[in-house]
Amino acid sequence: MEIDEVSRVYGSGQTAVHALRPCTATLRERDFVAVMGPSGSGKTTLLQLAAGLDRPSAGEVRLRGDSLAQMTVREMTRMRRREIGFVFQFFNLVDGLDAVENVALPLRFDGMPGREARARADEYIEMVGMGHRRLHLPSQMSGGEMQRIAVARALAPRPSVLIADEPTGNLDGANSREVLSLLRDLAKKNDVAVLMATHDAGTVRYADRLWRLDDGTLVEEAVLDEDADPPSRA
Question: What CA–CA distance (Å, rounded) separates 60 from 38?
Fold first, then answer.
């Protein structure tokens, strides 16, 4: 994924808010990038633009060479279903569905037959170590267990990029470490690039690279893992 001079301004004139100032960066295949900064620094805006959930005021986001800005609404929806997975702070599991049904849901939305979707869901639930909870409802799981199911749901469509917005914000220290280790290991195993927003400095050690934002400006790019994979672009 290439982010080329992307900016986002809300409003105009004296009331304009520069949520993200011109930003250029590249997310490579199998990268794990931590996006850090205080509240209001532009982290969530950057993630929304990278995911095609919002359109930039200027600049361009490209995924596999295709400009998100040139896509129709239908093409953008299809791209998100197939190429981008999401993990959120608040899990966003459907209360009335068990783990298998939750993980299978995006697959069914994309037209996968029910039996195949459930088989794929089972595969990824086992991958996150939650096979024993496959038929449990979210209300029957702990926070750490729900986030593991959310990771399985994000990876089941086999995306090229996973967007994680404060994925451990609702977890205690032990569960945070477990989920981040799992997310990193599975992303590498499945050739998925991860773009993770966080304000917790302790989570950065799981990343290969750091992008630091301040007042809407990308002020630092750092390599954290010298053994990170060579630059094959996502």
Answer: 25
